[in-house]
Amino acid sequence: MGRFYNNFKTALLLSLLTALVLWIGSLFGTGGLYIALVMAAVMNFVSFFFSDKIAIMAMRAQEVGPEHELYGIVQGLVRRAELPMPRVYVAPHDAPNAFATGRSPTHAAVCATEGLLRMLSREEIAGVMAHELAHVKHRDILIQSVATTIGGAISMLGYVFMFGGGRSRDGEGVNPLAGLAVLILGPLAAGLIQAAVSRSREFDADRGGAEMLGSAMPLATALEKIHLASQRIPMDVNPAFNSLFIAEPRNTFERAMHLFATHPPLEQRLMKLIGRESTGTFERRAA
The whole model's pTM is what? Predict the structure, then answer.
């Protein structure tokens, strides 16, 4: 029942994202609605088949092979979890972070930044990668990728109507301020919807990653280090991509309130992980 409810909620929220795109387009008359309709259809198609490539390109990541330490860590984890081997990438960013993307476990990719590989111990890197592989196992990666791509489409609509000379219902030119409002408020509304999709799944991935590794402590200490470092080292990526990462990046569009955060607070994540660790849950499952 829990899985059914989670899937139902996800389908509903993704439908709201698509509806938001169409509603924004309708504000600018029939022509705007047609543009939004085409964009929504294209974005859904692209996000299903090419979301992994988009995310990898946005991070300027390079694929690595068996000679790389990260590949070896991921390889050991997928054997334990009985998952197909994903493609493994490293992104040239100093901010420590990681993400998984793709449309299914057989079409998945995981990526870590150079900053994460430098900062964390091998066990902590394994904890982070176990978290990302838990997203793969739970099939969260398609959901996150679709939400991310549609969120990006809303920003694109703002640019189209602000600078492209859209037409309103009465046929007159659209006030650039209306396009600016879409540009600013649209992504905020999308952020609220993405947050509802993402937060509960982060707790599930934390638990699944700790079970995969057999201990919660490497992931807990990694999350704490990533969080502290992210306060000092920004990573300027489109906020629409925030939900993909293990920890929400700090960037120039940083949200002012937790309301728009795509991840639960660090303290809550650590309390859940350490609480389960103290019961011996993960050791018993790993035995």
Answer: 0.74
